Amino acid sequence: MALADESGIDALSMRRLADALDVVPMALYKHVANKDQLLDGMIDTVISEIDPAIAGAGWRTAIRSRILSARQVLKRHPWASRVLETRSNASPVVLDYMNSMIGIFIEGGFSIDLTHHVMHAMGSRLLGFSQELFDDSASMDPEMRDAVVRQMEGRFPHIAAVVKTVYHDAGSVVGAGCDDQFEFEFALDLLLDGLESLRAKGWSSRRG
Amino acid sequence: MALADESGIDALSMRRLADALDVVPMALYKHVANKDQLLDGMIDTVISEIDPAIAGAGWRTAIRSRILSARQVLKRHPWASRVLETRSNASPVVLDYMNSMIGIFIEGGFSIDLTHHVMHAMGSRLLGFSQELFDDSASMDPEMRDAVVRQMEGRFPHIAAVVKTVYHDAGSVVGAGCDDQFEFEFALDLLLDGLESLRAKGWSSRRG
DNA sequence: AGCCTAGAGTGTACGGCGTACACTTGTCAA
DNA sequence: TTGACAAGTGTACGCCGTACACTCTAGGCT
Prior knowledge:
Chain A is 65% helix and 0% strand. Chain A has 208 residues and is mostly helical. Chain A has two domains: 1-87, Tetracycline Repressor, domain 2 (Orthogonal Bundle); 89-199, no CATH class.
C-alpha cells in the first residue's frame, strides 16, 4: 500500500514490490496466491481504515460521517477506487461494511424496501459495489440463493434481510431481483428533484 | 470496440487486435501513435453514440433523457466506464458533451454558480470527469488559465463561463477553484435530503 | 516511360509483466 | 538427530507495448 500510495497503482508490480521488500519476486507467492489476492487484501485494509459507525446518533449523522470518513480514506489511497472496481467478489470485510450501512438505515426507520433502493442510489458514494452484490445473486438458481442467504443471516443479517425482500416481494414494481433501470432512475430522479428545488429557491454557494 | 464488446477490455491487446484485423501488430502503429490513443478514440466514438440533446424541452427532460441515453450506451460498451476513468485529458468530443450539458442547465434557469456545483454533484452519472476537468485548471498559473479560458470561449462557451465564475467569484464560500470537500458534501446532502423526505412519507416501490 | 513519394504493412528485438516449477535454506518440535 | 515446514531463490515461459529499420504498392510528377 505504501508503494501504491507513493508511486501509483501502475507501479505496483510483483517485481517492483519484491524489490522494495529486498526480496526476489517469487518470494511473494509464499504469502499470496497471486496478484489478485494481494489486491483483495489491500482493499480489505483500506476498508478497515474507515471509522466505525457512530452509535446512538441519528441515521443521517451516522451515514454522513461514515461516508465522509470513507472519502478521507480513499483520498489517502487514490488507487483504491480504481482497484475496487476491478474486484469481482466482495470479501467478508466489505460485506461487514455494507451490512453495517444497511443496518443504520433500517434502524433509522427506513423500510427494507426503501433501504434496498437507497443502497443502489448511494452507489459509488457508498463505496462502489452494491450493484454487483445483488447482480451476482440474480444469476443463481433460487435454491442456491436461498442457501447463500441462510448462511448470510448470522453474520450479515441486514444484507440477508434486503436480499430476501428483493426476491420475495413479488408485488413490488421491481419484481424478483433488481431492475437496473429502475434503480438508476430512482437515484437520478432523487438528484433531479433536489436540483429543481435548489434552482427554484435561487440557491447560491455564497450562503453555503 | 467490437473486440472489446465481445471479449472484454483485458482481451484488447495490440497483438490480439492486429490478429483480428489479419494484420501484424506493428501495422496498427501507422494509424495510432500508441495504445492510449487507440483508447482515446474509442471513448470519443462511445460518446458520439449518445443521443443529442432534445431541443425545446425543459431542462429536466433534456438532462434526464440525455443521461438515460448515455447509460444505454455505456451498457452496450461495458468496458467504457473503466477506460473513461483512466483517461487523463478530455478530448474535444468530451468537452462538447460537457459543454452542452452545462448549456442545458444554464438555459433552464440555473445560475452559473449552481450549475458548477451541479456538475460536480452529477459526477459519474454525467460521465465521470467534471472533477478532473476543473482540477487540472487549479494547478495552472492564473495567466495561463486565462489564456485557456479565452480559447475555450468560442467552442465551449458554457464551460468557459463556469470556469470563469469558479475563479473570479472571490466572495463565494468556495473561493478560488473548486473545494473538493464542499462539492462532495453538496452532492451527499442533496441525496440525504431526498432520502429523508422519502423515508418521512413512507415511500415504497410498490407504488413506483 | 521512368522516377519519387507517401502510406500501409512487415520482421526483429527489447524490456517489462505474472507466475509455474523445482530448488535451497533456516527453524524448531519430536 | 531427524524430519517437517515456512521462507526465500533461480530459471523459464508466454504474454505485453512498442522502437527501429525494412519492404511493398499505388499514384502523381517530369
